[in-house]
């Protein structure tokens, strides 16, 4: 869930906007701290309001409401349409210069998908020492790129700018820090917007379902390439906090220590629900077109809506209470269904910033991968068996026939037999206990790895009980080197976003742990 | 936020659905407890998947994903379209037989809107006594009708079925209970789907912004009609908990006692944010058409999405953890972007149930009215001044000219001057203190009214600190008859929905208070 702009978003007040140009898409550079100014809507866009007025007639009891927020997104659609015709296809998602690693050998994914080859975008900071023992692998949040920190090739501030550098949490005087764009992402790594080498077309929703563990496996292929046998530490927050744990479970002998911040060992229903609604909202945008929007207008409206929902989960109610309260953006104007209260303009702004900055299909696949995350032993074993069954797909002889066979099989949305209920355990107490045992067994490979688990009490997306669960489970595996730190509400009201904002407490704890 | 079906939703498992008929719209009676069966998608709807496959070609590395949930809503659109052509316009929103009160005299709303006349649908239970002193006015949640309890004219169970009746929480052996459909609703009371008498067309988004206080004022016009001078009690939960307080502030001399369950004295930013995203998602549905969908396909997709988001706020994470955990609906099938985990099928089902059951514009206006709710003295005074300025609209001479003048004024979405920042107080401590003082002054009229305030610790939509705030504020007004009850997480994990489910603890507390 990293967001590079998160620090500059303060209390943005709305324009009575009619047209919104995405800064990235149109190459306009502007500081996010200063509210943008918007051009006037052309007559064609304003027409709706006019015709509604004509329709309602002069005799109506009350005036027709105005919807400038809808005018704005409709104008953007028109602008993108005209731009597509003139200048070619959809935006190129990038945060700037980065290194690339391309694997020519195929990768078999946990749920049976296959990529004939793949590319991982990455950046590094600090110096690799002679025995390559000072490497920190930094895992990102959902939508972040490899650009965690500015560097000469790309001086733009990174998403963990103040946490990486000489003397900082990830001390580049001592460590060689690697950050990748995850598999499935859109910032240089192979994802749904990449070309499928099998037919020369973009994957779109022909991209296979992937898991956190798949992403981590791809990262370790990069480490192989760099000749890094063992990490000094696997570090990450949010989705990265999941991955830092997954690295320890998948490659315990290659991970020296682990830092997991505001992450979890398995997603819980509330987080799944919040991500589910984001995906549904995005998929309902007609421009999403089942994922085949490349070269056309991308689902910027669905992306904006999804981001607004996501933004609710990043902070906390008490923080908003202090910051926005019940202030309206302009109390002199009548209440409106478009952004009106300051909290609404804040959400609107977050959606505007993001709607063309990130690939919609990447969001769907990575968000789903987070839901599927479960380091419990039962799930790990199921995935192992599934991989076993699918290993044949790595045989060169198989590769050509994959597409047809499975496509027909999977697109059958109407089974001939009605769905029947699966047996369900109805004893919560024993189930909970079984759940705990399952997770202890699942995390057993990490039994010897020193681990720092960091939680934030005000986090509603990855509630702190999940981090406590990780720490307690690790202790139950016999791990004697578990450190648990929780930032209470007196320390941080920034909720899930604390990992991006709290240099002193988050950064400080990480630094102490890595030096310990 | 009342939902009649809330009790029957257990752990519904999904069909691999392709077409979804709304039971209400199509007059199909089915028990919500048994999963529905869906007809096959016609070839025209399946075509997309087929053409995608053709596009992706047989050489693709992986199969195209299937999206049965999108097929289903697209099929519904087609079904409604064909039905519209054959059988006339949109569904008629009703929960059955009810009484009606129609005011011929106009009502001026808080924000300056005017209704030349209005109708309030209502139902009653029990017997009105001779001096009309045994009346309980029951306020509903956002989307509920007047049908709180079955009766001979409408034997269908009501939304508070087990709370109303002889010997129950609202004891009909003793009390005469009145429940109305709120002004702005769609179950018989005047709302956006009603005809504007000024021009014979539906109001749609020419309906004026309204407030909780407007709704309560309309209810008291009904009490006038019935000759009820003073209520024995004003009772409500959720939005009804706001209104039960508003009644005390607006008409302190006419309210004998107050019960406010899971309500608040002013909406806070987190609740506003959650409702805001619901409205935005709904308004983004192209079928919403700026509110002018009557006679056409209603925004059933936006309504479904909005309801899914809303449903997240009705329960609690811990309850879902116990009930759904990480169970997938059918573990034998590959992960999907359409409903997959049980929690997702639960949300999907809630959206399906609601999407054609309620008028989209009513949802928007009433949801917005909840955001605007603030019983603080500053807001009350501003509304008083605004009403003063708008009183001229009640003059018969004015009525004809209202429409044009204001329509032009309000639909200017592009001011000639850019928006400038309003001065903002940046001292949270003093602001918080001022906020408290403001609310004490606002609730002062209730200083003598015995009041029961009920909260539920696991509620995330109306968190219990808001109910504590109400109780503490009332005490500061000098009120000596304030009872505060909070159901802890050991008592209820049902969150906001507890008021619909917990007959013993919610119902029991209400009964004890009313008999006290």
Automatic annotation (TrEMBL), chains A, B:
Keyword Acyltransferase: yes
Enzyme class: transferase
Alphabetical UniProt keywords: Acyltransferase, Transferase
All copies of domain AB hydrolase-1, residue ranges: 134-473
Family from the record: Belongs to the AB hydrolase superfamily. MetX family.
Gene3D superfamilies (alphabetical): alpha/beta hydrolase (3.40.50.1820)
EC code(s) of this entry: 2.3.1.31
InterPro entries: AB_hydrolase_1, AB_hydrolase_fold, HAT_MetX-like
Lineage: Eukaryota, Fungi, Dikarya, Ascomycota, Pezizomycotina
The keyword Transferase is assigned to this record: yes
One function term, GO molecular function aspect: homoserine O-acetyltransferase activity
Protein name: Serine O-succinyltransferase
């Amino acid at each position: 869930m990293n967001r590079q702009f998160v620090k500059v978003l303060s209390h943005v007040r709305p324009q009575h906007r009619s047209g919104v140009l995405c800064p990235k898409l149109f190459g306009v550079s502007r500081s996010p701290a200063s509210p943008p100014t918007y051009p006037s809507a052309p007559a064609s866009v304003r027409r709706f309001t006019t015709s509604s007025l004509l329709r309602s007639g002069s005799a109506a009891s009350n005036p027709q409401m105005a919807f400038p927020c809808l005018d704005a997104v409709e104008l953007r659609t028109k602008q993108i349409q005209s731009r597509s015709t003139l200048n070619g296809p959809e935006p190129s998602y990038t945060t700037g210069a980065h290194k690339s690693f391309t694997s020519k050998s195929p990768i078999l994914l946990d749920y049976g998908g296959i990529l004939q080859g793949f590319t991982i975008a990455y950046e590094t900071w600090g110096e690799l020492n002679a025995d390559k023992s000072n490497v920190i692998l930094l895992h990102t949040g959902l939508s972040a790129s490899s650009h965690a920190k500015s560097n000469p090739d790309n001086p733009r501030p990174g998403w963990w700018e103040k946490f990486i550098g000489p003397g900082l949490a990830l001390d580049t005087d001592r460590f060689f820090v690697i950050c990748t764009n995850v598999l499935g992402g859109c910032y240089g790594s192979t994802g749904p917007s990449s070309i499928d080498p099998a037919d020369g077309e973009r994957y779109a929703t022909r991209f296979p379902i992937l898991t956190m563990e798949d992403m981590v496996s791809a990262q370790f292929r990069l480490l192989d390439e760099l000749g890094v046998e063992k990490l000094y530490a696997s570090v990450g927050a949010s989705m990265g906090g999941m991955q830092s744990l997954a690295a320890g479970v998948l490659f315990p002998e290659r991970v020296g220590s682990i830092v997991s911040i505001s992450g979890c060992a398995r997603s819980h229903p509330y987080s799944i629900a919040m991500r589910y609604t984001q995906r549904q909202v995005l998929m309902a945008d007609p421009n999403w077109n089942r994922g085949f929007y490349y070269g056309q207008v991308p689902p910027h409206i669905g992306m904006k809506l999804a981001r607004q929902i996501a933004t609710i989960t990043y902070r906390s109610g008490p923080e908003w209470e202090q910051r926005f309260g019940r202030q309206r953006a302009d109390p002199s104007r009548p209440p409106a269904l478009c952004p009106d209260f300051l909290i609404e303009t804040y959400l609107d702004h977050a959606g505007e910033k993001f709607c063309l900055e990130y690939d919609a299909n990447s969001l769907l696949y990575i968000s789903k991968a987070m839901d599927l995350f479960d380091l419990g032993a039962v799930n790990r074993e199921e995935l192992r068996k599934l991989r076993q069954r699918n290993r044949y797909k790595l045989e060169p002889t198989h590769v050509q026939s994959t597409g047809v066979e499975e496509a027909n099989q999977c697109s059958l949305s109407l089974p001939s037999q009605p769905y029947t209920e699966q047996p369900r355990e109805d004893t919560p107490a024993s189930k909970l206990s079984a759940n705990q045992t399952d997770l202890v067994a699942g995390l057993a490979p990490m039994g010897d790895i020193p681990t720092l688990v960091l939680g934030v009490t005000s986090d509603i997306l990855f509630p702190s009980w999940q981090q406590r669960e990780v720490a307690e489970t690790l202790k139950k595996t016999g791990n004697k080197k578990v450190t648990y730190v929780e930032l209470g509400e007196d320390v941080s009201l920034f909720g899930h976003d604390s990992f991006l904002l709290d240099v002193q407490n988050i950064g400080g704890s990480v630094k102490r742990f890595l030096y310990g």
